[in-house]
Please model this.
Amino acid sequence: MAQERTGAATFKGNPITLIGPQLKVGDSAPDFTVSKNLLEDASLKDFAGKIKLISVVPSLDTGVCDAQTRRFNEEAAGLGDDVVVLTISADLPFAQARWCGAAGVDRVITLSDYKSRSFGEAYGVLIKEFQLDMRSIFVVDKEDKIAYVEYLGEMTEHPNYEAAVDAVKSLR
Model:
């Protein structure tokens, strides 16, 4: 059974339970399987040799998640070809594609954790009560070591965008 971290975070001030380990800088990035679309999956190895900025959001159709994804889409332009920006949510791939088209987001790769919640459990961000992934940021270096991690304490708060981007730049 996966580890549960009760009260590790809140949603509008109410405690929620996160499933999975709390990863730290220096840990090996766990592998995961997420959906690119209904027929294709992706995993950590698909981004081998790249610096990975992984932006995790509960749902693209909410204000903070929308703003977070748009911000990292803008930042992606200046990060270089050796960096990939991934946004992972439990939204269906159809919803992700619709949202990206409507928002003009074209530099971020959206991946869906809807099938198995593999990413959420491996990275300790699966919200037991909602079966969504908790807002968080991970920067993983080219050797798949975690170089930066931010677990948000409150689901409705913004992450530290500057610190995440600085972490990526420090690896270049």
The longest strand covers residues 4-11. The chain has one domain: 25-171.
